[in-house]
Amino acid sequence: MQPIRKNEYAWYAIYTRSRSEKAVNLELQLSGIESYLPLKKTIRKWSDRKKMVEVPLFNSYVFVKVSEKEYLKVLQTFGVTRYICFEGQAVPIPEVQINAIRAYLDETEPIPLDDQLKMEAGKSVIVTRGPMIGMTGVLLYIEGKNRVKVEIEAIGQSLIITIPPQNLEIILQ
Questions:
Q1: Nearest Cα to Cα of residue 16 among 70, 74, 66
Q2: What would the CATH number be for the domain defined by 10-93?
């Protein structure tokens, strides 16, 4: 993990107060800092209605692309608690992972199941096609003919994705 270098921009994950992700993201953007809050659509039920809402993919996390001079400005934003650190250093996130999250959220079309592909829960897998290519995870369970649930570890958080089984390959151990 390398420290932030002067005039170099890198992506970092910040931790926010509970349920403050959208407000923090807006405040960062208004102050000129590039930020990204991955949102997923979900149906929420109330006693009298159902509604489609956008909720954060990672609770209490927002991604920021900053240089050394903006580092402290982010921490001074209301609702920001801290950077995600490892051994006292903010952990840079490769742009390819940010792009993979964006692409995953944009993906909607299922691909038909290849009958030759035999998957079992608990197996380690690697994504071989699609927007999450190169990511590794654990197959949680098979969801019908066209989808499987896979747990992918990212930024110290588990991301459970639904993905076509043809986009996966079992990792032999």
A1: 74
A2: 3.30.70.940
pLDDT score, position 112: 44
User: What whole-number distance in Å separates Cα of residue 154 and Cα of residue 85?
Assistant: 13
Give the C-alpha distances (Å, rounded to integers) separating 4 from 1, 7, 70, 89, 92. 10, 9, 10, 9, 8
List every span in the chain annotated with CATH 3.30.70.940. Answer: 10-93
CA torsion sign for 99, 100, 106, 111 is positive
- Kindly report whether the global pTM for this prediction surpasses the value 0.70: no
Secondary structure E strands in 30-121: 34-36, 39-45, 50-56, 61-66, 80-83, 85-86, 89-90, 92-93
Say yes or no to pLDDT of 20 above 90.
yes
pLDDT for 165 equals 82
The ranges of the chain annotated as CATH 2.30.30.30 are: 124-170
Q: What does DSSP assign to residue 113?
A: P
Q: CA-CA distance, 64 to 4, in Å (whole number)?
A: 13
Domain 124-170 has CATH 2.30.30.30: yes
- What's the pLDDT at 159? 80
